[in-house]
Amino acid sequence: MKGQAVYPAAAALFAVAAASPSKTTCLLLIIYLLLLFIRRPHCFLPALVAALFFFVYFLIVDHHNKTSLSGGRHSLSVRFSAAPAIDGDRLQAAVQAGKERVQLRYIIRTAAEKEALRARLMPGVVCRLSGMLERPMPASNPYAFDYRRYLRRHRIHWLFLPEAIDLSACVRVRPTIIERLEAIREAGVRRIEAQFPPEAAGIAAALIYGERRSLDEEVISGYQQLGIIHLLAISGGHVTLLVGAALAAAIRFVTREAAVLALLVFLPMYAVLAGASPSVLRACATGMIVLAVQWKKGMIHPLDALSWTALALLVFDPYMVWDVGFQLSFLVTFALLAHVSVLASARSMLQNLFQTALAAQLAALPILLYHFYEISVWSIGLNVFFVPWYSFVILPIAFLSAVFSFSPLIWLFSRLIELTDAVVRFFSVDYSFMLVLGRPGPWCLAGYLTAIAAAFLDWERGRLLRGLTAVAAATALQLAAPYVDPKGEVTVLDVGQGDCIYIELPYRKAVYLIDTSGTPEWVREPWRKRSRPFAVGRDVVVPFLKAQGVRTLDQLILTHDDADHIGAAPEVMGAVRVKKIVTSPGALPAVKAMARPFSVPVAASVRGDRWKVGDAAFSVLHPEAGNNEDNNGSLVLLTRLGRLTWLFAADIEEEAEQALIRAYPELRADVLKVAHHGSKTSTTELFLRTVKPRAAIISVGRYNRYGHPSPEVLMRLRQQRAIIWRTDENGAIRYVYDENGGTFQVMKP
User: Fold this and answer.
1) Which ranges does the record mark as transmembrane (predicted)?
2) Which helix or strand (DSSP H or E) is residue 617 part of?
3) Would residue 315 be called left, alpha or beta, if left means φ above 0 and alpha means ψ between -120 and 50 degrees?
4) Residues sharing a CB contact under 8 Å with residue 338, sequence separation 6 or more, in sequence order
5) Which of 330, 386, 396, 327 is nearest to 357 (CA)?
6) How far is residue 485's CA from residue 562's CA, in Å, rounded to a whole number?
7) Are 558 and 633 in contact (CB under 8 A)?
8) What is the Cα–Cα distance from 486 to 27, expressed in whole angstroms?
9) Measured between alpha carbons, how far is 206 from 655 in angstroms, rounded to an integer?
């Protein structure tokens, strides 16, 4: 029967994910096969065979995904298969080093060197370079991007850091076909960057070549927040437009069979020219399958074409299963194809657009929440407007402008992009309406999938409202989940050389954030500035809060006004609602000025202040009233969570420690957040003999220029027989507890 290839394709996808390994996906695969055995017995055997084949196939591929290189200094001959990515003073490229690929990363020294590297390092260039091979960093915070795993899934195991790139040691060799195509692609992108205004060049390059390097980060963020980022990805619509236009033009001169054959040869080349992303590969492979069947005078069901494409791509690279573009591309396309009869029954184009946007949003919902933790309320409405706008206006003009380089066309395209960006900015920044739900757990995901499947079935039966009610119920359950969870947590985030501590009480009775860390701002020459420099608030703290499903902080506790403690506070206040800020007297003026644009009330706290929420009591031990110092005027908190007493010592030094001991001679703590990142001016022997901590947590940056933590401090803690955890070595330190106690977890054991 037509359309049945989807069952073994789904089994293959489950099997690859289950072999990763994943206990949850193994269970889902078993349930899926059992349901097929009961409801679709004729599809059970093909699905079982596909599952077994791809399970074993992935294990074999993964077993052979190893490195033969070792760390340390090496002299390597590396081959550039594509033009390197140059952003400010940083150059990056995945290069071939013998039989392996390594990720080359180089900091450019001068503006002249930058221009020389951009001009000379093209596909097919081989260079002899000396430098260090280092292991990529794994994720150091919960929910964070795991760079080591990402590179491994691209069969890269090492970062190569050359000491210098001597262009006299580089030669151009005979390029491969793919390298020739990459060179054409790079030339096309540079031509667009040279001829189009900056605000339009990024969109044109993304639509034509799948290259987003020229896109403004705020634009990308806005498109992503509003759920319309797919418009900037080359996918089925682009390929359909291209194939249709090419066929219409070709059959005027050659037979249809010859035109189809030419397209079968051209589409793989176009996939490379368009960036070879999963959505591009899916669109081109599906188009090739459909064209091949037509060439043989046959017909193929669209679902079968999609399914065979999925199977082919899994054979080509089973690691694609974890690519968010692959997941969204296939799931949304499947939903639209499976639901085509309902969409075709729309009475008007507007209704069809709305139903298509709704179906796509429903299908994408679990993936969007898992990867991005939030959805935009404007998404469906904006897709109704933007899909035809891009399909019938922006995309054709982009192609015409790039092909003919006609100044009036480029001017028109630029003005249209300005208008489009203004609309995106209006809904993503000025009137953003984001619903933060957090990352759904395995069972929550299962609930979403069940509710969405039920919604599509109800929709086909004419009961759309009932189906949407099921999805709304699943969303309500996720929203309510933290408030019925008896577990609380304390997480010391890895924010480099700074402090940021997340506290959530059981049943989410309160959520606190102690400090936010911050990213130092260095004065850089214009040519060194990167399009998206790392920002600890935007890239670490805010994603963690959103992944937790936090929409409101009951208190943002800023211990003092050093940048490594409060620098990211504006980013936090811009992302989540903050009910109140508590800070030290000395930091009060600076914090008030920082909070004023967000209308957040600020209060200073001193020794003796207390508050209690449920069983958790918080006491401010320092500073005393009238203390307006910096480090020695930091807020010091004592609390009891999960049967452990915690002392958060901020950045106090010896003088403040002595004052604490005088004021509280019986002070004890099970867990000490070590003061001032382990500086030798803090955590004195007398202080430790008084507090007697059983565990010590040091928030400190890797390779920091201050030499923190001090060897003397580490020795004192060992003499106290305290367990030591450090964020630079262990990543985030997480304590999950309930009324019976708790357990510590570290990201990097």
Assistant:
1) 12-38, 44-61, 231-254, 260-293, 328-346, 353-373, 385-404, 440-457
2) strand 616-622
3) alpha
4) 6, 303, 456
5) 386
6) 35
7) no
8) 26
9) 58
* Per-residue model confidence (pLDDT) at position 319: 95
pLDDT at 106 over 80: yes
Give the model confidence (pLDDT) of 369-428 as tens digits: 999 999 999 999 999 999 899 988 998 899 889 888 888 899 999 999 999 999 999 998
The total of other beta-carbon atoms located within 10 Å of residue 584's CB is 27
What are the residues whose beta carbons fall under 8 Å from the beta carbon of 228, sequence distance 6 or more? 379, 382, 383, 386, 424
**pLDDT tops 90 at residue 519:** no
- Which H, E and C letters describe 625-669, residue by residue? CCCCCCHHHCCEEEEEECCEEEEECCCCCHHHHHHHHHHCCCCCC
Query: Which three-class secondary structure state does DSSP give residue 678?
Result: helix
pLDDT tens digit string along 152-172?
Answer: 999 999 999 999 999 999 999
Q: Does an H or E element contain 2, and which?
A: none
Segments of 536-599 assigned E as strands: 552-553, 555-558, 577-578, 581-583
Q: 128: which strand partners? A: 77
How much is the average pLDDT of 454-461? 92
Question: CA 445 from chain center: how many Å?
Answer: 18
What distance lies between CA 627 and its chain's CA centroid?
A: 42
Work out the pLDDT band at 578, boundaries 50, 70, 90: very high
Nearest to 654 by CA among 677, 675, 625, 639: 675
Angle between helices 395-404 and 236-250 in degrees, nearest 10: 60
14 neighbors 316 (Cβ within 8 angstroms): no
Nearest to 204 by CA among 403, 389, 392: 403
Rounded Cα gap, residues 256 and 247, in angstroms: 8
Task: Give Cβ neighbours of residue 46 (< 8 Å, ≥ 6 apart).
Answer: 4, 7, 8
The greatest distance separating any two alpha carbons of the chain, rounded to the nearest whole angstrom, comes to 95
| Cis bond before residue 162 (omega within 30° of 0) | no
Stretch (H or E) spanning 227: none
Task: Kindly report, residue by residue over 264-317, the tens digit of the pLDDT.
Answer: 989 999 999 988 888 889 989 988 998 888 887 778 888 999 999 999 999 999
Q: Cβ distance 142 to 500 under 8 Å?
A: no
Q: Using alpha carbons, select from 309, 434, 327 the residue that is nearest to residue 375.
A: 434
> In residues, how long is the chain?
749
Which H helix or E strand runs over 528?
A: none
Beta bridge partners of 644: 641
Task: Give the type of residue at 656.
Answer: A
Q: Are 288 and 277 in contact (CB under 8 A)?
A: no
Residues forming beta bridges with residue 74, ordered by sequence position? 131
Residue 9 · residue 307 · CB < 8 Å: yes
- Cβ 541 vs Cβ 572: under 8 Å: yes
**Bridge partner list, 161:** 132
Number of neighbours of residue 148 by Cβ within 10 angstroms: 15
Tell me the whole-structure pTM to 2 decimals: 0.93
Give the DSSP H or E segment for 511: strand 511-514
Q: What is the mean pLDDT of the chain?
A: 92
